[in-house]
Amino acid sequence: HMLLEAGWPGSPTLRAACGGEAFSWSLALQLAERTERVWNCYGPTETTVWSAMWAIDPRRGSVSLGRGIANTRLYVLDDSLQLVPVGVPGELYIAGVGLARGYLDRPELTRERFVPDPFAGVPGERMYRTGDRVQWSFDGTLEFLDRRDLQVKVRGFRIELGEIEAALDRHPAVLRCAVVAKHAGLDAHLVGYYVVRDGAAIDAGDLRAHLKAALPAQMIPSLLVELPALPLTPNGKVDRRALATLEAPRTQGVALSPRDELEQSLMAIWQRVLGVADVDRAALPSGSADGRGQAPTIDVGRTFFEQGGTSLLLVRVQRALRTELGIQISVAELFAYPSIETLADHLRQAAPSPAEPVASARRAAPQAELEDLSIAELERAVKASLLDLLDERDVSSP
Question: What is the pLDDT of residues 127-148, one digit of tens each?
Answer without folding.
Answer: 999 988 899 999 999 998 877 7
